[in-house]
Amino acid sequence: MGEIRTETREVEGAPVARVVIDRAAKLNALDTPLTRTLTETIQGLGAEAGLRAVVIEGAGDKAWVGGGDIGEMAALDTASARAFIGGLHDAMVAVRDLPVPVIAAVGGYTLGAGMELAAACDMRIASTAAHFGMPEVQVGLPSVIEASLLPGLMGRGRAARLMLTGEVIDAQRAYEWGFVEEVVAPDKLADAVDAVLGDLCRAGPLAVRSQKRLMRQWEAMTPDAAAEASIATFVGTFEADEASQRLGTFANRRKG
Fold it and tell me: In a 10 Å sphere around its CB, with 0-12 CB exposed, 13-18 middle and 19+ buried, how is residue 245 labelled?
């Protein structure tokens, strides 16, 4: 049995949530019950109005998320396969639709559905102990659902190499390929995450939420349509006081 553990703490006086996928004995592999709990947890966090960010971690030091549960997948038929993969997709959509930024704090192996979950997050910070791969073809399956995000993150050729060969790469190569934004020593991972959280929590909370919402909308838009949607969001920003106050403070600081 696995569980999803959550806790909330303050960074720069603002609440951030830590979500731990805890099935360490099975490399934090996602079976249907654990996936359902993850979806419900993320959706619940989305309803917290004051929340500023979410960090997703994996329990133990061997894996972040080792993939989908192999034992469950081996018993799938055409009906249960749809429910299984649809449930995984629901969890990743919940992450992508969360109103606040989500950081994947990755230590250990991150494979298949784990790499797709990391791709669904807004940022990925990895320790040097992390490894990444899409090994589905080696067990007779294609990579699906949020694997579609990989070409945009690392380029089509590199994504194709991972998905067509099942190769596993280390954290440094994942950084060089653009999948992760930062690689640090394992004992520095928490500090690196906190540095990003500090920047997020010092930023305007309404602006950050607007930015994430726009980025999600841009995924399905042409550049011209994205620009038009952005204009409407920019104008709407001035309906609240946040932008005016922060701009005024910045302008006065420059005058001084």
Answer: exposed
> Cβ distance 89 to 107 under 8 Å?
no
Contacts of 20 (CB under 8 A, 6+ apart): 4, 5, 6, 56, 57, 58, 59
Q: What is the DSSP string of 13-24?
A: TEEEEEEEEE-G
My answer on whether 100 and 225 are in the same domain is no
- Centre a 10 Å sphere on the Cβ of residue 195 and count the other Cβ atoms it contains: 14
Contact assessment for residue 4 and residue 20, using Cβ atoms and an 8 Å cutoff: yes
* Domain range enclosing 78: 3-202
Q: Locate tokens 């966090």: which residue?
A: 45
Q: What is the pLDDT of residues 40-94, one digit of tens each?
A: 999 999 999 999 999 999 999 999 999 999 999 999 999 999 999 999 999 999 9
